[in-house]
Amino acid sequence: MVVTVDVKLPEDSELTVQEVDLSAATLFAGSFHLGKYCEHANNEFMLCRMEEQDPRKCINEGKVVTACTMDFFRKVKKACLSEFNQYANCVDKSSGDFSLTQCRKTQGVYDKCMLEKLNIERPAFGYFCEARVHDTKRPKPPVEPKAVYPDATPALPEDREKVPARFGSRFYWMTE
């Protein structure tokens, strides 16, 4: 990636946060409840990324997502550690692609523990695919004006005669 002198890159101290050092199986096992628990922080981060089109402007929102993830796994560790470990171990060992189908019994035990002790219900199938409106306190970024180039090629005048294409339209099959 080419970076010019005008680009301000964040300092290392701005980027340093405690990392989520968990295995893929552990993240797969906790993903549904984690997504529900940190839904607001995740939506805020993704809205920032889509609106700003610059990841440097969303560093603080990313830190909030990481902090929420760490908080979630700390709560799981205090409340449902043995159930979660059994489920994550099943996800890890039952298939090569972290498939959840072989682990429905341990999933049920884990889901019941999460509902009883942390009051987090496993979201229904397709929950994260539903369209939602996210209310944010962050101001909307200003719309960048369209670039005007002084040496741009001038357009053809509108009153000029428009002759048909020499070999016909490339959309000849759409005329029927």
Automatic annotation (TrEMBL):
InterPro entries: NDUFA8. It is found in: Mitochondrion inner membrane. Keywords: Disulfide bond, Electron transport, Membrane, Mitochondrion, Mitochondrion inner membrane, Repeat, Respiratory chain, Transport. It comes from the Eukaryota. GO terms for cellular component: mitochondrial inner membrane. The keyword Kinase does not apply. One of its GO terms (biological process) is mitochondrial electron transport, NADH to ubiquinone. The keyword Zinc does not apply. Accessory subunit of the mitochondrial membrane respiratory chain NADH dehydrogenase (Complex I), that is believed not to be involved in catalysis. Complex I functions in the transfer of electrons from NADH to the respiratory chain. The immediate electron acceptor for the enzyme is believed to be ubiquinone. Belongs to the complex I NDUFA8 subunit family. PANTHER family: NADH DEHYDROGENASE [UBIQUINONE] 1 ALPHA SUBCOMPLEX SUBUNIT 8, NADH-UBIQUINONE OXIDOREDUCTASE. This is NADH dehydrogenase [ubiquinone] 1 alpha subcomplex subunit 8. It comes from Diatraea saccharalis.
